[in-house]
Specification:
With 282 residues, the chain is mostly helical. The protein has 2 domains: 142 residues, Tetracycline Repressor, domain 2, CATH 1.10.357; 126 residues, Up-down Bundle (Four Helix Bundle (Hemerythrin (Met), subunit A)). It is 76% helix and 0% strand. The protein has 14 helices and no strands. Helix 2 runs antiparallel to helix 3, helix 12 packs antiparallel against helix 13 and helix 12 packs parallel to helix 14. The longest helix has 26 residues. The chain is globular.
Length: 282
Amino acid sequence: MIRRMLRGMIRASHPGPAAAVTLVTVVLAIGTGVEPMRVVLVGAAMLAGQLSIGWSNDWIDADRDTAVARSDKPIASGLVTRSAVRAAAIAAAAIAIPLSLLLGPLAAVVNIVGIASGWSYNAWLKRTLASGVPYLVTFGTLPLFVTLSLSEPRPSTWWAIAVGALLGFGAHFANVLPDLADDARTGVRGLPHALGRGASSVIAFASLALASIVACLGIAAASPALVVVAVIGLVAGVALAVAGIVLALTRPPTRLLFQLIIASAVVDVILLAVAGPAIVAR
């Protein structure tokens, strides 16, 4: 019984995205020069916030998931109760706040804004044409959270924030694509639903390609020694995006499309990680 509940709680937390975002944050913090103990706090605060967002998603969507018989959803399949997931979401958010405050008030405010943005998507904005805004905010503030976590807090560069925001916007469309049919059955109609599968796929790739371009230009300007790496990343990111757009416009949706979106996002994340201290505003 306990093992079943734990399995349900883990699945309800959206462990893949939570782990991925936390890993990106930690890698970025290390590359930026955040002190080791503070890197641990950065990772813990980000993980708590991401778990809170994941659990709130399944808690808030429980009725919708049950209505469409989502067997992959722990609450709908009976693995765990809605009240348990709700309690976990609130507890994780409560834990994220003091962890963030240990990094300083500025870093705390930025991380709390990111968490609140994620909750706003789950509770309301996912059903509106402004569904992409929380992704812009949550991912766009990620580099800022990292640089403000330095022992001497500094803002991040405009281009690092822009890359994060574009990554988030692309991730929004990529995340929604597999659920368009189920969402339509339960009245969820965000921006990707209004635009349709084809346009949403193109926008996802275009956002990630633009992120590669902005990252390349930012890295080249801030650290000329990394120009070659930046250009390689740019070529890879744009090539993947072009291939994905052609695929989206000429063929029915396949798993390859989603894999290309993930690959494009990984290129952009690597560019940010390679930039390291260059993302700190001077």
